[in-house]
Amino acid sequence: MSAQEIIASIEAEQLKSNLPLIYVGDTVRVGVKIKEGEKYRVQPYEGVVIGKRNGGINETITVRRVFQGVGVERVFLLHSPRIDNIKVLRRGKVRRAKLYYLRDRVGKATRIKQRFDRSL
């Protein structure tokens, strides 16, 4: 076996199979495992997916939310062991691949129409 085949087989073992279909514009709730002392707990992080990058084991999503009037963005590696679960709460109707323009908007201007032709 070549080195690339060995790497591909190791990566295939690490891929998660229970991930939902995630599109840009969706509102998602990501359960993140947080270590406190010796225990782990799952903390939900809810927001709008404003970007997706890469593919396979390196696939990431950028999730944005507004917390106490400040926009907070987090990048999640989808196949990371720190991600416990991902739930799609609503589908967004958008016309572009990256929603970086939401960074400049405030309040009701950040709303995204709901899309009903894709199931949750």
Automatic annotation (TrEMBL):
It comes from Atlanticothrix silvestris CENA357. One of its GO terms (molecular function) is structural constituent of ribosome. This protein is located at the 30S-50S ribosomal subunit interface and may play a role in the structure and function of the aminoacyl-tRNA binding site. The keyword Ribonucleoprotein applies. The lineage of its organism: Bacteria, Bacillati, Cyanobacteriota, Cyanophyceae, Nostocales. The keyword Membrane does not apply. InterPro entries: Ribosomal_bL19 (IPR001857), Ribosomal_bL19_CS (IPR018257), Ribosomal_bL19_sf (IPR038657), Translation_prot_SH3-like_sf (IPR008991). Gene3D superfamilies: 2.30.30.790. Pfam families: Ribosomal_L19. One of its GO terms (cellular component) is cytosolic large ribosomal subunit. Keywords: Ribonucleoprotein, Ribosomal protein. This is Large ribosomal subunit protein bL19. GO terms for biological process: translation. PROSITE patterns: RIBOSOMAL_L19 (PS01015). Belongs to the bacterial ribosomal protein bL19 family.
